[in-house]
Amino acid sequence: MVPFDANAEAGLLGCCILGAFDEVVAAGVDENWFNELHHKAAWHLISRVAEQGEVSEQSVVMASASDKAFTDNGGSAAVLTEMVDAAPTARNHPYWLPKCREKVRLRRYYDLGVQMQQAVVNAEDVEAFADMAESRLFELRKFKEEAKGEQRTESFQRIIDLLEAAHKGTGVVGLPSGYADLDKILCGFRGGALYTIAARPGMGKSTLAMNIAEALAVKADVPVALFSLEMSEDELNQRMLGSYSSINLQRFINHDYDKAERNRLLQVMAKKMPALNKAPVFINPRTDITINQLRAEARRFVKKGAKLVIVDYLQLVSAGKRSSGNRVQEVGEISRGLKKMALELDVPVIALAQLNRAIEQDATRVPRLSDLRESGSIEADSDAVLFIHCQNTNVNQDGRLLCQIVVSKNRSGRQGMFDICFVRDFIRFEDWRDHQDLVDMA
Questions:
Q1: How far apart (Å, rounded) are the C-alpha atoms in residues 331 and 65?
Q2: What is the pTM assigned to this prediction?
Q3: Domains of the chain, first to last
């Protein structure tokens, strides 16, 4: 039997009739909160009265006499009187709201169960079905006791809170990247947004993503989920250890340091290791993963507390068994899946992407959005697109190379470009202000 509480529905409608309609609507109530047919009809009647003017017991009762939709569904003046008696005052709506919310939540789970039974019979792709089921369940779990719907007043309140935080803080309203220039342009990584970092092979996409993860997880204790389709967990952790310890691990492994120096560096790494061990970085190294599997895993990481999801890299993700053979179409499906995941989980998603080979014909040219490999959908679905570029490879010294980050698309703000220094020995990008000699050389 479908779960519902007729008495609670009547009490809530009675409060609406007595003048609490606006407060109830602001709490997110709609016709789906009522199971009884005559209760739904009463809700629509009250809504129509509200469109004409002030809702009161007299105005609703008068309107009911000539409202055929209400009377045809079992409504009458006597039914309205029973609802008012159940209320029995407008101020009682906070008492009835939780009771109705509980039942509407249960009905949504009931409906989902029925729909899953029907969908599983005709399911051709079990992974796609599993992703759909998990996504629907995740959405239902977000409908919590305190949920109040997407009202404009609440939206503006969130905007005011954001602006106040920006006014009192540093101007970064999302997660900080660890780079002052990037934070100034993006104002931080925001929930629900898809950020694409693109470059030619070997230009440091994975390095920049790892540096951002390190700045958040190790230095700020912000949980980060990292999907790596190219490197193993050991390789990623090795890179993070070298970067965080400021040690060239390749030279260490090759014995380019003498024994005394290696002993010293071992002590340095031993001191840094506890912070790395404690850092909330969830690494998922997969060489084969579909967009549906990725979204399912991301949900689990977000439930564990992850505030940022990084995908390295987008073109290695598979569209799944429904692959059409058209790679452009598949990459478009993947990018849309990542954007949908960001909105569903309300966390920022950073996706790394390759550029097409046309850019290699002129390495000095600043990358354009049209250089994104295999699909224009990446550009369309991304809230911001960042390119790693090197205008002049001759601006280097002692294993340091001056590069540029180019923000070619920024849906929430301005575009821009700034210098950044790649330090090869430690496999990390650093602020150009710490390498003024290279800037002067440029």
A1: 58
A2: 0.68
A3: 6-152 (1.10.860.10), 175-441 (3.40.50.300)
